Amino acid sequence: MIDLLLFMASMLMTQESKMRMILILFGFIDNWYSSIGLAEFLYDKYRWTVVGTIVPTEKKARSNKDPPFLKLSNGALRKVERGWFREAIMKVKTARGNEYYIQCTTWRDKKQVMFVHTKAVGRTEAGNVLRHVKGKSKRVSLKAPNVQKIYANNFNAVDRNDRDSADYTCSIRSNRWYLRIFFWLLDRAIFAIYIVLVARYW
After folding, report:
1. What is the value of pTM for the model shown?
2. Are residues 38 and 20 in the same domain?
């Protein structure tokens, strides 16, 4: 699927645009698809950097494909103040021997939020975000990791993709699961072509 989208994009863009696209190519993923394995695959094969949310789990046995942070219990979550966060970085080698880093960040907002990302990797020095807090008339400034601001500014594209695909879809009702997958892939490809055309000609 990704090979198809890259091929279509390369057919519609000039050489200068291709070089600019390669330099800034990154994606935002919602928690239905995010994983450390996906972040590794996209960087290793396509040099894509990604930012995505990931669902924290209570699983005790951990491998290098699992987030390093556990899901906080309700009791632990109440004891941790909003704005608390922790960051962990893992060094990874590509098949060509190049080194890069994958970071996992867990942050306490109203609930626990966890990010996996190969963009904005590094220690957060001073980040903050405005939030409504119960009992306060004005929004309060809370500490936040760097990746939160990047994700908040761009995740709308993920929601817009889902919304547009729900409104304008070529899918049909079918009990054959492989047809549903085919039409889902076709919807994604059409949406990607639309984005490339808008960026190129409008």
Report:
1. 0.68
2. no
